[in-house]
Amino acid sequence: MEPSQSGLSWNTLLFRFLFAYILLYGFAFPFYYIPGAHTLIHPIGSALQDLALWYGKIAWGVDAVPTEETGSGDMLLYWLLWITKLTLAILVAIIWSAVDRKRADYPWLKKLLITYTRYYLALILLSYGLFKIVPTQFNEPSARVLVQMYGDSSPMGLLWNFMGYSTAYQIFGGVAEVLGAVLLLFRRTTLLGALVLVGVMTNVVMLNYCFDVPVKLASTHYLLFSIGLAVVYGKPLVNLFFRNRPTAPMDQRPLFEKKAWFWGAQVVKFLLVGFVFYSMLSAALAQKEYTDNLKQTSALGGVHDVVQFSHPASTDSIASAYRTYWRKLVVDDFRPERLWIEQVSGTRLQYQIAWDTVNRKVSGHLANDTLQRITLSYEVKSPEELRWQGTWNTDTVHLTTKRFATDSMLLKTRKFTWVSPYPFNR
Fold this sequence. Notes:
Elements: H1 10-25, H2 38-60, H3 76-99, H4 107-133, H5 143-147, H6 155-165, H7 167-184, H8 190-210, H9 216-233, H10 235-241, H11 259-297, E1 302-310, H12 318-322, E2 326-331, E3 338-343, E4 348-356, E5 361-366, E6 369-380, E7 385-392, E8 395-404, H13 410-413
C-alpha cells in the first residue's frame, strides 16, 4: 500500500490502531486467570467503566446506565465500554503516529500482538468448549418448558432448548471449539486452528444474531479475531489456491528467541493453559454434578395437574372467579426455587419460593411483587398425588394434584432411527 503524503504508511497506522484496540478490548487478559490479581486490575477496570459512563453521558447523551451484572454480554454498559475503547484506540494510534513518525515497522510488536490474540481467543473458546463437552451450558428441556405453549418461548429460549435437547450435538459443538482453541496454542497449527474457528464462530455469531442471544458483541469479536489470524497466516494458501504461485514457508520463530526467555515463556504457557483447563473443567464438572443432584433430590420437581381446587367464594361473578382457579403447578427441575401456577384463564404466575422439606411447606412471593405472597403445606398421598393447603395472597386454598408424566411426551419418547418410512415432522 502506498504511503500517504505525510510519509506515514497506512499499514503502519492500521497496525498501531489494531495493537491498541485489541489490547484494550482484551483488557486484563491473562491476569484475570491469576489468583489474587483481581486486586491489581480491579481499579483499572473501575476507572475504564467510569470513563465509559462519562463518555456516554457527554458524547451520546446516555444517562443512568445500569451497572449491575445480569448475565447479558450486550448490556448498554458493555456497548459504552466498547465505543470508549474504540475511541481510545484511535487516539492512541494518532498520538503514536505523531510521536513516532519515522519508524514504519514493528516486527516484534507484531509477533506480540499475534501471540496475544492467539492465546486470548484460545483460552476463551477452550472455556466455552469445555462447558459443552461436559454438557452444562444448555440444559435439557425442563418440565416447565415441556408444558408451556410453543409460542411463549423467547427466541433465545427456543435456541437453548434446541441445543439442550441433544447432548451429542452439544458435545460436538464443544469438541469443535476446543479443537480450534488447542490448535491456536501452537504456532505451526495456528492457521488450521483459525480456519476451524472461523467456521465455528460464524455459526455461533449467526445463532446469536438470529435468536437474539445477548453475546453479540463478544462473539463478533471472536469471529473477527479468528478471521484476522486466518488472514495473517493464510497468505501461502491464497498464493497456492488463487494465484497459482509457489509458497514460501512463514516465519515461525517464537516471540522470545533467547533460550532462557523461550523456556521461561514455555513454563508460563504450560502453567496458564493448565490452570485454565483445570479450573474450567472442574467448574463444568461441578455444575454437572449440581444439576444432576437437583434432578434426583427435587422430589416435587415436575408438572402437577390440579384435579381439585377450592377457595372462598369471590364477590365477582362465578365465571370471573373460575378463571382464577389453578390448573397446573410446575416446579422447574433445574430451578426448584421457582414455582409456576397456571390458572384456568391461561395466566402464568411465577413465584420465588423456599422449600421446607422437614415440615413439608413452601413459601414465597410473586417474582415481580413481594407483597403477593403464597404459603402452602403439602401431604404426599402417593408418588403421583399431593394434597395442598395454605394461603394465596389473602385467600385460603385447598387443592389436590396429580403428577403429569412428562417422560411420556413425544419429545422424550422419540429416539434416533436409521430407517424412517416417512418424515416424522410434527
